Amino acid sequence: MKNKFKIAVLPGDGIGEEVITEATKIITSIDTIGERVELHEFQCGGEYYSKHGIEWSSEAEEFSKSEADAVLLGAIGANDNDGNPIRLPDGNLAGYNVVLGMRFELDLFANVRPVKLYEGVPTPLANKTHKDIDMVIVRENTEGLYVPIRGRLVRGGNEEIAIDTRIITRKGSERVIRFAFDESKLRHGAPSDGEHRVTCVDKSNLLAGCQLFRRVYNEVSTEYPNVKTDYAYVDAWTQWVVKKPEYYDVVVAPNEFGDIITDLGGAIQGGLGMAPAGNIGSNHGVFEPVHGSAPKHSGKNIANPTAAILAASMMVEWLGKKHNDLKLIKIVKSIEQGIAEVLLEGKIRTYDLCTGEWSNITPSSTSQMGEEYLKRIKQKIKES
Questions:
Q1: d(CA 8, CA 198)
Q2: Would you kindly state where each structural domain of the chain is located, as residue ranges?
Q3: Measured in Å, how far apart are the chain's first and last C-alpha atoms?
Q4: What is the pLDDT of residues 301-334, one digit of tens each?
Q5: Percentage of the chain surpassing pLDDT 70?
Q6: Which pLDDT does position 78 carry in this prediction?
Q7: CA atoms of 310 and 72, how far apart (whole Å)
Q8: Degrees (nearest 5) of the Cα angle 372, 376, 382?
Q9: What separation in angstroms does the CA of 280 have from each of 69, 106, 186?
Q10: Interval 165-202: pLDDT, tens
Q11: Given this model, what pLDDT does residue 91 score?
């Protein structure tokens, strides 16, 4: 069992620093975690690029990719003084190479997005409650439309053609699909019937890459006789999940489709302020809240820190499982219980959660919510 874990903390831009501060405060204030982690914080992203001409330092890049046991990432993306996004010479957002660089170089092939509605959190779905929404979406993270194989044809100063190439491979499909089936085995099943089920979401009625993805899904599924198979075309799935979210346990999808449906998942779980994610490979993990940097809210101490805290909790759980550390795995339950208790009471919550029956609640600040979470988590640890 490893005694110390080195964590690269990359707050990034905008509200990233505010929410990551609350997340690191919690993991360092809990003795079982704090005595085991060693945080190394580095600046990166668009704001860093505007000052230094690079997206992050060589020290930050080297540590994050080579030394860190895990990475906790805030948000990437900043605006200039005129309110325009800060971009690289190639047109990508400044900070792009931090996120994509780790994703590809560390081979973080599975983007794992828990879609869980906590009691006391509003959802836009009528007649649905926390009992209905509890799934995990696993998105392939290293290929599909997002591989950097693209280009433009410019003639006479006019951009006439833009081409993006979509890549689906057997290797990429197989490992993320197997990850999804393994994830289902560890869960308690779909809310509606308790069935362990992996739903393959694709567009195999039309696209060759999705046809390969589904064939590989069928092959892998034979290794998991106790996990039910399920299929949905991506356009159909978007309506089915709105009508009956309780049917879903684990969902697996190619990169770009997974990117789209996970934002729908974020909406039904109460907004992106409630949505954590893990980018996971065989040996490395990068964990983050999935919301953006929200420059217009930066510095106001109003952003919801829940997603960042849940992302840190995912990181601790991943480290615990990877290193067979039962103490870390156990402490995650107390973190989730403390968060759930605060949300259920409904008295301390940021502005994005003050809707519906909670519209009369005076919004709390980022730091107030973080402090209340920490207080409750410590109580849950004492009770456990």
A1: 32
A2: 1-115+274-384, 124-268
A3: 23
A4: 999 999 999 999 999 999 999 999 999 999 999 9
A5: 100
A6: 96
A7: 11
A8: 150
A9: 12, 9, 16
A10: 999 999 999 999 999 999 999 999 999 999 999 999 99
A11: 87
CATH class of 1-115+274-384: alpha beta
Query: What pLDDT is stored for residue 1 in this prediction?
Result: 63
Q: How many CB atoms lie within 10 A of CB 296?
A: 11
In the chain, where do the E strands start and end? 5-12, 37-41, 70-75, 110-116, 134-140, 150-155, 158-164, 197-202, 228-233, 250-253, 276-280, 285-289
- Residue numbers in the chain where pLDDT is lower than 50: none
User: What local confidence, expressed as pLDDT, does residue 85 receive?
Assistant: 95
Of 313, 302, 282, 314, the closest CA to residue 365 belongs to 302
Same fold, 1-115+274-384 and 124-268: yes
**CATH number of the domain at 124-268, out of 3.40.50.11030, 3.30.565.10, 3.40.718.10, 1.10.3720.10?**
3.40.718.10
Per-residue pLDDT, 290? 94
Instruction: Give which of 198, 190, 180, 183 is closest to 247, Cα–Cα.
Output: 190
User: What letter would DSSP give residue 249?
Assistant: S
Polymer length of the chain: 384
Q: Give the pLDDT score at 287.
A: 98
Strand order in the sheet with 228-233: 37-41, 5-12, 70-75, 285-289, 276-280, 110-116, 134-140, 250-253, 197-202, 228-233
pLDDT attached to residue 365? 98
| Token pair for 353 | 């959660």
CA distances from 150 to 90, 106, 144, 164 (A): 12, 22, 12, 4
- Report the C-alpha gap between 68 and 302 in whole angstroms: 30
